[in-house]
């Protein structure tokens, strides 16, 4: 911690991420479970209000008034509270980011670990390492966003489909990191000693090798979360992501671009 806090940029990023976690958690609670901010409530007489506008309408029922009788970020073309929609959108975007990255990390560790540990084994006339890495090269040949766009366009619009598609199209970099680490680790003394003691291979991989190969994967994962959020927002902006009336950062931007 003493070393970490000396890096001001890292500290700022860490606390900003904590803020987003809290914001997303609170947003999920306050917009879905204890509905204090309703992101889908339409108030047509209150449309296009600027930020920090107090609720003064006599037409709308007091039960439909925003929390604290204030539109903190104004309203959109349907009179919906933009602050409430931002709360919901933050929760959705962070969920997509972390779930998609978790899927990509799992796939990357799985395929990278096989390529690194069992890579010398041959399947017919070609090694397992060659098969996996050539498949990775083929996947990397396709522009990722357009590949995701094509797959999502063929599937029903759903947040679950988006998370899965983003996850299964972004594991290649992780696989390369894990493979490189496994190639180095399998020649180290403690791995050779574990083999000599007839320790099961699954235990060698998951207990001795994966924890020592995870450091570059975590660095890649932090970047992957941001990339997944941007991808989901782009898909929603283009109309292929989460569909209205559910709010995400992407469709909030899409609604606002008309005005």
From TrEMBL:
Family annotation (CDD domains): TM_PBP2 (cd06261)
Localization terms from the record: Cell membrane
Keyword vocabulary terms for this entry: Cell membrane, Membrane, Transmembrane, Transmembrane helix, Transport
Entries under Gene3D superfamilies matching the protein: MetI-like (1.10.3720.10)
Keyword Membrane in annotation: yes
One GO cellular component term: plasma membrane
Topological type in the membrane: Multi-pass membrane protein
Any Pfam family the entry gives: BPD_transp_1
Signal sequence, start to end: none
One BP term from GO: transmembrane transport
InterPro entries, per database record: BP-dependent_transpt_permease, MetI-like, MetI-like_sf
ABC transmembrane type-1 domain sequence ranges: 90-259
Stretches that traverse the bilayer: 12-35, 96-119, 131-153, 159-178, 205-230
Record-linked PROSITE patterns: ABC_TM1
Protein name: ABC transmembrane type-1 domain-containing protein
Organism: marine metagenome
């Amino acid at each position: 911690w003493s070393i970490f806090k000396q890096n001001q940029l890292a500290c700022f990023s860490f606390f900003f991420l904590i803020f987003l976690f809290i914001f997303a958690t609170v947003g999920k609670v306050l917009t879905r479970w204890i509905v204090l901010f309703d992101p889908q409530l339409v108030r047509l007489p209150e449309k296009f209000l600027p930020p920090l506008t107090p609720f003064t309408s006599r037409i709308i029922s007091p039960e439909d008034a925003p929390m604290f009788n204030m539109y903190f970020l104004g309203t959109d073309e349907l009179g919906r509270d933009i602050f409430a929609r931002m709360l919901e959108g933050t929760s959705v975007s962070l969920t997509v980011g972390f779930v998609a990255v978790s899927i990509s990390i799992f796939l990357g560790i799985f395929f990278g670990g096989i390529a690194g540990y069992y890579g010398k084994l041959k399947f017919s006339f070609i090694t397992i390492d060659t098969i996996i890495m050539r498949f990775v090269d083929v996947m990397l040949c396709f522009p990722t966003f357009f590949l995701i766009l094509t797959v999502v366009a063929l599937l029903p619009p759903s947040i679950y489909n988006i998370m899965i598609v983003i996850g299964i199209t972004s594991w290649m970099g992780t696989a390369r990191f894990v493979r490189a680490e496994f190639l180095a680790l399998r020649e180290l003394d403690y791995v050779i000693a574990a083999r000599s003691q007839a320790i099961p291979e699954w235990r060698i991989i998951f207990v001795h090798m994966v924890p020592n190969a995870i450091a570059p994967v975590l660095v890649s994962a932090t970047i992957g979360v941001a990339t997944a959020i941007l991808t989901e927002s782009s898909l929603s902006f283009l109309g292929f992501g989460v569909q209205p009336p559910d709010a995400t950062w992407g469709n909030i931007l899409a609604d606002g671009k008309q005005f």
